[in-house]
Amino acid sequence: MDDKERKIIKTLSRQYRNIAAASTEIINLQSILNLPKGTEHFLTDIHGEYEQFHHVLKNGSGSVRRKIDEEFGNTISNKDKKSLATLIYYPESKLRIVEQEEDNLEDWYTIALHRLVQISKRVSSKYTRSKVRKALPKDFAYVIEELITEKAEIHDKEAYYNEIIHTIIRIGRAPQLIIALSYLIQRLVIDHLHIVGDIYDRGPGPHIIMDTLCNYHSVDVQWGNHDILWMGAASGSLACIANVIRMSASYGNLSILEDGYGINLLPLATFALETYADTDCSAFRIKYNTDYNTKDLSLDIKMHKAMAIIQFKLEGQIIARHPEFGMENRRLLHTVDYGKKTVMVEGREYPMLDVDFPTVDPADPYNLTDEELDMMLRLQHAFMKCEKLQKHVKFLFAKGGLYKIYNGNLLYHGCVPLNEDGSFAKVDVCGKKYSGKALYDVLEYHAKRAYFAKDVNERSTGQDMIWYIWCGPGSPVFGKSKMTTFERYFIEDKETHKETKNCYYRLLEQETTVDQILTEFGLDTKGAHIVNGHVPVEQIHGESPVKCGGKLLIIDGGFSKAYQKKTGIAGYTLVCNSRGLHLVAHEPFESKETAIINESDIFSDFIIVETFPIRKRVADTDIGRDLKETIVFLEELLEEYREGTIMEEY
After folding, report:
1. Which terminal residue of the chain, N or C, has fewer Cβ atoms less than 10 Å from its own Cβ?
2. 246 CB contacts (<8 Å, ≥6 apart)?
3. How far apart are CA 3 and CA 150, in angstroms?
4. How far is CA 601 from CA 39, 86, 330, 573, in A?
């Protein structure tokens, strides 16, 4: 036994002070190893669509409905199953409707409570009593534990349970217990949640989604390029702040910043009104939805253009500071010919739709005016001092990374950059070349330095790197040759709008490519999978999310409404339980109200990816590996107690 092992055993002896305590824990842990593994739920590319996100989270991508089917089979009608599922998803709203429509509420409460108790028993059966107890709501912990736990010493159990439910209804607590049981089922049907990137941008409620994730019982996040952008903005990167505001303006979502995060945009509004009052802003249309207040349209368009010009200036400054980024082709302001109204892109001259840039000095086009700089510094202060945004970004750092290895699967957003021949592409990061897993690790390091570094220079470099992760050609989470934002605003020729995907997306059907990536990250090529977000799967054109015989799964199918015409569906999610892996294709989600009133769900199609030949247990998971290691040390502690090397305490 080496010194490290001895220290571990010594530490355990303080917690398990005698043979009885250590033995009890060994028995407990050994029992846990033989329980079925918990259900993992994979979501990605949510893009601020909080209502659809919450619905999918509540139904566990169909996991709740499957439990209802398993429990009741043909003993209740499909209509009753739909009604029960809706009650579990939205108990408060469903109860309000029932209380207005039902003639005999007592009977309805009795039936609903019995059914909820049955489902609660089923979803809690794979967990230890201790784990279930921790999940119980405080107000009903004792009652629910009595209802869902078998009691061998009670001969007339049916009468016992019926009396509990009858009493709850009689004293007027049935609605509260129904709500508590519904949320318990939601909590237990999914053991762990994976968010494989892109919580932010496009949709109206990323801040609402982040509030939910911060309170979720077990979750990890693989950063997407849009998440990275907001993390950079929270760190104080002016270029990232400009991108965040421009994109929020372009989707008519400035309310996310103003109302969701309480960030004061008055300095920008004042600047835009004064500076762009008589400026042509027709190229800066707003993609707004029905909730958008069109009285703000004229101002928002001016703010949109003002921030876009500032973005192009700030990005030009970063590119000049970092020639190793290889992004000189993204510095376009200095190639604008204001007389001819043209711009040079990749050595070719194109006519521009707009050259009305009141703040751009042709002699020094990337320099911010005094007014622009003052306004950006005020916005920087607002982002860095926003308590809610900082809480959310700290959560992303604490629970996330650029990739995750979990239970033998590799999770990441975007791609592993590859060359044409399938080899790992080398990317210059601060003067040194990185590829494969090392590239992910070094970029993640710099992203953390952007936010946490105390040294000003180190923090500044980190902020430039976090911007590169957002849109650089060698960034795994971006995965394209360039981001053609400038061209999309100012050049009509759509050829200039093209963003070439990394070779990864062409090679991912080849087993040698996928095996190479799994091996690079230290995984077994036989049983492992890659779960990949970022690029919408165009089911409407026959594309499948299952690649390379099921080794690689792309689960972004269009959560964002902006993608749904292109994809034909409203997203894929993935569920991994003790019996296998299956994808769920979702229909477009109309609204929470429609789901409640019509008792409609949005999971539409199941794709079985893999069925495990033997049901997986906790012993087969990462947690199981840790428990086995603890058991080994506890057994060594037992020997120490028995040999008197360590003395027991009583």
Report:
1. C
2. 304, 307, 308, 311
3. 46
4. 20, 8, 45, 14
Question: In angstroms, what is the C-alpha Rg of the chain?
Answer: 28
Partners of 573 in the beta sheet? 584
DSSP string, 157-226: HHHHHHHHHHHHHHTT-HHHHHHHHHHHHHHHH-SEEEE-S--SSSSS-HHHHHHHHHT-SSEEEEPPHH
Q: What is the DSSP letter of 45?
A: -
Average pLDDT of the chain is 91
The number of beta carbons lying within 10 Å of the beta carbon of residue 589 is 23
Contact present, 124 and 188 (Cβ < 8 Å): yes
Distance, CA of 203 to CA of 571 (rounded, Å) = 14
What six digits make up the tokens of 166? 């009858």
Residue 529 has pLDDT above 60, yes or no: yes
On the 0-12 / 13-18 / 19+ scale of CB atoms within 10 A, 598 is exposed
Place of tokens 């999978």: 529
Angle between helices 456-471 and 436-452 (to 10 degrees): 130
Among residues 46, 10, 13, the alpha carbon closest in space to that of 559 is found at 46
- Write out the DSSP string of 288-316: --TT--GGGHHHHHHHHHHHHHHHHHHHH
pLDDT value of position 364:
97
Q: What pLDDT sits at residue 147?
A: 87
Q: Which two tokens stand for residue 296?
A: 């703000």
Average pLDDT value for residue range 397-402: 96
In three-state secondary structure terms, 523 is: coil
Q: Determine the Cα–Cα distance for residues 153 and 169; give it in Å rounded to an integer.
A: 25
Q: Residue 601, Cβ neighbours under 10 Å: how many?
A: 20
Task: For residue 315, report the phi and psi dihedrals to the nearest 5 degrees.
Answer: -65, -40
Other Cβ atoms within 10 Å of 604 Cβ, number: 13
Q: Are 176 and 140 in contact (CB under 8 A)?
A: yes
Residue 465 pLDDT: 98
- The per-residue pLDDT for range 616-625, each reduced to its tens digit, is 999 999 999 9
Amino acid identity at 162: N
Measured CA to CA, the distance from residue 578 to residue 176 in angstroms comes to: 32
CA distances from 99 to 79, 83, 544 (A): 19, 14, 45
Closest CA to 357 of 378, 332, 376: 332
At 61-88, the pLDDT tens digits run: 889 999 999 999 999 999 999 999 999 9
Alpha helices per DSSP H over 60-173: 63-72, 78-89, 91-101, 105-124, 129-135, 141-148, 157-170
d(CA 365, CA 316): 9
Closest C-alpha among 267, 246, 266 to residue 202: 246
Evaluated on CA atoms 487, 488, 492, 497, the torsion sign reads positive
The C-alpha atoms of residue 302 and residue 274 are separated, in whole angstroms, by 10
The token pair at 573 is 């999610």
Predicted confidence (pLDDT) at residue 598 exceeds the cutoff of 80: no
Distance CA 443, CA 438 (A): 9
Among residues 179, 145, 198, which one has the least CA distance to residue 562? 198
DSSP code for 618? G
| 267/442 Cα distance (integer angstroms) | 36
Residue 607 β-bridge partners: 583
